[in-house]
Design a protein that fits this description.
The protein is 83% helix and 0% strand. By secondary structure, the chain is mostly helical.
């Protein structure tokens, strides 16, 4: 039971932080964001909330699995430390892009985020294979988001 509570608690934290960082985007989605030139592969706005919700749930499960399964305390702390850093960068991106209206700075930040996700994935898969696999859709989405962010910056510079 303690394992399930740990996993659920991490999922709740991830979804809550995701929701709060999404609050920064709400005003900009209807005011600033429509004024930007976007690439042809830009998804419709409605797709982002369900995709991110699913990704936050998967991230939470992954971190919860690492928290409960990690047998080596130092390795587990390192893995969860990288998770916390990448998660903080994830939340910060919304503020930089939508809050500050700065696609260039957001591009630099999302590249750092991508690198931290790679390292988190590498650490997670050593502790729990499923936890590592749960991060792959997140890595794929952030890879796409990096290309999208870069394209928006380029088209609007």
């Amino acid at each position: 039971m303690q394992k399930i509570l740990k996993i659920v608690s991490v999922v709740v934290v991830c979804v809550t932080v995701g929701y709060l960082s999404g609050m920064v985007t709400r005003d900009s989605i209807t005011t600033w964001y429509p004024t930007l030139i976007k690439p042809v592969f830009n998804p419709p706005n409605w797709i982002f909330a369900p995709v991110w919700t699913l990704l936050y749930i998967m991230m939470g499960i992954a971190a919860g699995l690492v928290w409960t399964k990690g047998s080596d305390e130092q390795t587990t702390k390192k893995a969860l430390g990288f998770f916390a850093i990448q998660f903080g960068l994830n939340a910060l991106w919304s503020y930089i892009f939508f809050g500050l209206h700065n696609p260039f700075l957001a591009l630099i930040e999302i590249i750092l985020l991508w690198l931290m996700i790679i390292e988190t994935y590498n650490l997670f898969k050593k502790i729990d294979k499923t936890a590592g696999l749960l991060l792959l859709p997140y890595l794929a989405w952030v890879s796409f988001a990096t290309i999208l962010n870069g394209s928006i910056w380029w088209l609007n510079k």
